[in-house]
Amino acid sequence: MLWPVLLALQAVCSSVADAMQHYPAAWGHYDVCKSQIYTEEGLAWDYMACQPEATDMTKYLRVALDPPNITCGDPPETYCALENPYMCNNECDASTEELAHPPELMFDFEGRNPTTFWQSTSWKKYPKPLQVNITLSWNKTIELTDDIVLTFESGRPEQMVLEKSLDYGRTWTPYQFYATDCLDAFTMEPKTVSDLTQRTLLDIICTEDYSRGYVWKNDKTVRFEIKDRFALFAGPRLHNMASLYGQLDTTKNLRDFFTITDLRIKLLKPATGATMVDENNLSRYFYAISDIKVQGRCKCNLHANSCVFDKGKLGCECEHNTTGPDCSRCKRHYHGRAWSVGSYLPIPKGTANICIPNNHGPVHRANASSLGVANRNQARVCDNAMLRCQNGGTCHQHQRCHCSPGFSGVLCERARCQGPGECEDPLSGRAAARPRGAGRWLALAAAAALLQQAASLC
Question: Does the global pTM surpass 0.70?
Answer without folding.
Answer: yes
